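In the current project phase, the collection of sequences with tokenised folds has grown. One resulting record follows, to show the layout:
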Amino acid sequence: MTKTFRGFLLGAAALAATAAFASAANAGCGDSMLKEPANWLTTSSDQANPLLTKVSLGDAPITGMWGVKFFAGGNMIDFGYQVWHGDGTEFMNSGARAPATQNYCLGVWAQTGQYSYKLNHWALSYDATGHLNAKVNIKETVNLDVHADYFSGPFTIDAYNPTTGALLQHVAGQVTGNRINVN
């Protein structure tokens, strides 16, 4: 068997193994027929499939997708979408920044009261040539309304020099979020 053909067979076997396990790793897209969340851990407690068992995605009212707007000095300075995950992580896609300069950030959050939350997320900022020009820390302290479909609260944005860590800019303002539903 030639080296090229052997390499092809190994690659095909790896691709087949990846495809076989891809449905178990689904983060939720396309699984609308399931009655339980599609989040899995390896264990031997599930009798139907001893390799898979479900875990809770969290039941905090903040979890879900939000359309957000950031205001400072009476002006909207950013907008976009945030997804607050049940595991305490968050993802934001910024609409005011071009993808080439980096338009997303990743964060972690904690519930601080019945309807209040604290978020700490980070972004990397690049200039138009692709040079890293700042590490940006965005912090939010938000409160949900009683229906859990709107939040608001103060935020800060601190941009740091990526080499020295020196503060380059500080912005403070108010953030608002409206829940995005399936309907």
About this structure: The chain has two domains: 3-54, 64-180.
